[in-house]
Recover the amino acids of this structure.
C-alpha cells in the first residue's frame, strides 16, 4: 500500500472535523453572541460548517475530491468566518477550537487547490485510472482526527456548557451517574 493511498481520505475527514468545529463555534456565536455582528458571523459559520460536512461526505462516497473549486471556497470561507468570529466575539471563543478549525480548513483548501491545478493540466495520452482509498488509512485518519476534534469541540462555547458524564442520569436515575 502506498503512502498516497493511506492518506487519500484525509482531506474529507479534515472537512468533517472543520465542519463540526464550525458548527460548534457558530452555534456558540448565535446563542451567546454579544451583538448582531457576532450572531451574523455565527450563522455564516453554521452554513459553512454544514457545507463542509456535505462536501466531505460526497467526496468520500465518490472516492475522489469532487468540485475542487467549491472545496476551495468552503475552505477559504471557513478560514475567514472562523477568524472573524474570534475577532467579533473574543470573550466567548477559545483559541484551541479556532486554531484547529483554521488548520483543518487550510488542509481542505490547499488539497482542493492542488487537485484543481492538477485537473487543469493537460492529460498525457495514457488514460489515468482512479486510485483507491485505503480502509486502513480511513480508520487511522478518523482515529487521529477524533483525538484532535473532540477536545476542540468541548472547548467551543456550546461544548463547554454541555453536562459532563458525572451529571448524566439517563441510565441510573438517582445514582449520580454511577
Amino acid at each position: 500500500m502506498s503512502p498516497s493511498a493511506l492518506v487519500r481520505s484525509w482531506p474529507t475527514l479534515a472537512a468533517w472535523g472543520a465542519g463540526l468545529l464550525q458548527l460548534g463555534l457558530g452555534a456558540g456565536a448565535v446563542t451567546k453572541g454579544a451583538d448582531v455582528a457576532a450572531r451574523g458571523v455565527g450563522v455564516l459559520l453554521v452554513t459553512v460548517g454544514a457545507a463542509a460536512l456535505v462536501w466531505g461526505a460526497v467526496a468520500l462516497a465518490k472516492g475522489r475530491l469532487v468540485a475542487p473549486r467549491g472545496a476551495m471556497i468552503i475552505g477559504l470561507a471557513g478560514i475567514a468566518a472562523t477568524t472573524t468570529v474570534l475577532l467579533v466575539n473574543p470573550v466567548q471563543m477559545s483559541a484551541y477550537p479556532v486554531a484547529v478549525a483554521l488548520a483543518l480548513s487550510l488542509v481542505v483548501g490547499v488539497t482542493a487547490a492542488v487537485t484543481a491545478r492538477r485537473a487543469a493540466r493537460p492529460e498525457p495520452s495514457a488514460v489515468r485510472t482512479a486510485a483507491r482509498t485505503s480502509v486502513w488509512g480511513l480508520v487511522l485518519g478518523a482515529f487521529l482526527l477524533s483525538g484532535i476534534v473532540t477536545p476542540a469541540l468541548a472547548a467551543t462555547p456550546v461544548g463547554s456548557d454541555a453536562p459532563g458524564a458525572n451529571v448524566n442520569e439517563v441510565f441510573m436515575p438517582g445514582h449520580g451517574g454511577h
About this structure: Residues 116 and 155 are 34 Å apart (CA to CA).
